[in-house]
Amino acid sequence: MSESATQAEHRTVLLRGGEVHSPADPFATAMVVERGHVAWVGSEGAADAFASGVDEVVDLEGALVTPAFVDAHVHTTATGLALTGLDLSAAASLAEAAELIRAYAGARPADRVLIGHGWDASRWPERRPLGREELDRLTGGRPLYLTRIDVHSALVTTAMLDLVPAVRGMTGFRDGEPLTGAAHHAVRSAAYASVSPGQRADAQRAALRHAASLGIGTVHECGGPDISSEDDFTGLLKAAADGPGPRVVGYWADTDVERARALGAAGAAGDLFADGSLGSHTACLHEPYADAPHAGVAHLDAADVAAHVTACTEAGLQAGFHAIGDHAISNVVSGLEAAAKALGLARIRAARHRVEHAEMLTPETVAAFAEFGLTASVQPAFDAAWGGDTGMYAQRLGIERARTLNPYAALLRAGVPLAFGSDSPVTPVDPWGTVRAAAFHRTPEHRISVRAAFTAHTRGGWRAVGRDDGGALVPGAPADYAVWRTGGLVVQAPDDRVARWSTDPRSGTPGLPDLTPGNPLPECLRTVVLGQTVYVRPGE
């Protein structure tokens, strides 16, 4: 393919000789891009009429063209630091984690604070995290901040605690246990304060390059005062606006609505914590955990939610909440009910507020999501990583409660819009893997078709920011697309009768790659955002 990697928005390009995934023409093999937007999609024969009037003709050589993916929940700087730094997500035991920490500390003698991510003791034979004295020995007594895979708790060395002397009196500090709550937030702030502006910018660039290499055209950054910093947030938005790469839509998790607006956020939303996580025993439940004598912690009650939704709606901004446990989700729903009574249901629905994660849903809360027009911004990779009858969810909740988690089919049946994301670095940026995880959910009744999952990871992400013009390759849409090397295209759905009908030409259903577990995932050859190439696979 000869398309220039520095293609300007005003150039007119004809792509032909491949497969173009478009609802405008299920059998399209060609597409014209003009002024950063899709101008036409159609058949190979009709493409001849455009060939002489374009600036460039791209021979797809049989490749598949799809809308670029949208990752609807990312922590960009943390993702970049995990990509370039200490990543324990692949450690299969306490001993492996210890050796990775020792090697990393030895290789970074100049770092004032060591930062790492990804430990998950629930996967280790020892079933325990590293203790503080062990970490002190592994690091030679240096400050270390090491987040659990869900980023809702952290291990630290004694030297790290000494950088925040007041932490020992904060909520979430229990000597000898991972930090949670306020104690965790305070130590996280101190750790990230040690990252220089240059290191932060490098991490952000690394994360966005990585996303582009996987066919992602847009990421939703979830920042906030307890998560990152204002400089981190505004720096990322500026960097994304100034250079070619995936576009970044920023959410700032703060009840100060005007501050969120001043920072350039699309909403005072994202990880505005109604609760914590299941892995760290901090998600707020109606009934206690199966493996702990408590039910987690609520950070927002219904009155808090109502006040925030009302303020955001009146300000013309999206509200949104991180809510995982069933009690936390009930608090969000009750707050929405109160806000709807005060402002009217139509205004609430029109605002397209969001809930992140939304794992422990019930039929009643699913119906409420539909009533209030809430977008469920969810992460199917969570189920792939922790679902099933022997996974972390079952350890925390017991098998029966675990089987109710992440009910994507029920959400779609109720008419709740889905937007898929990774929550990276909690789970990796992996869009086709995410689609596969939803289509092959560990609980069969929660599975959805590959087409529905793909839509949630493309068009769903655009809709989640209040835009209905993107995420599908149709005339007039932004030219955000990815080119893929893949095998034959099929239609996959949980109900075989649906799949058989969808392959009939009369259905007009365009095919997608076969994502059956074990099959190789598509390989990204090129990613284009608003007509500008932001990634080209080496050698293409």
TrEMBL record:
Which Gene3D superfamilies does this UniProt record tie to the protein? 3.10.310.70, Metal-dependent hydrolases (3.20.20.140), Urease, subunit C, domain 1 (2.30.40.10)
Q: Which CDD domains match?
A: YtcJ_like
- The reply to whether NAD figures as a keyword in the UniProt entry is no
List the residue ranges of the region (Disordered).
500-520
InterPro entries reported in the protein's UniProt record: Amidohydro_3, Metal-dep_hydrolase_composite, Metal_Hydrolase, YtcJ-like
MF-aspect GO terms: hydrolase activity, acting on carbon-nitrogen (but not peptide) bonds
User: Residue limits of the Amidohydrolase domain?
Assistant: 56-535
Per UniProt, the keywords (alphabetical) are: Hydrolase
Q: What's the superkingdom here?
A: Bacteria
| PANTHER family documented for this protein | IMIDAZOLONEPROPIONASE, PROTEIN LONG AFTER FAR-RED 3
Name-wise, this protein is Amidohydrolase
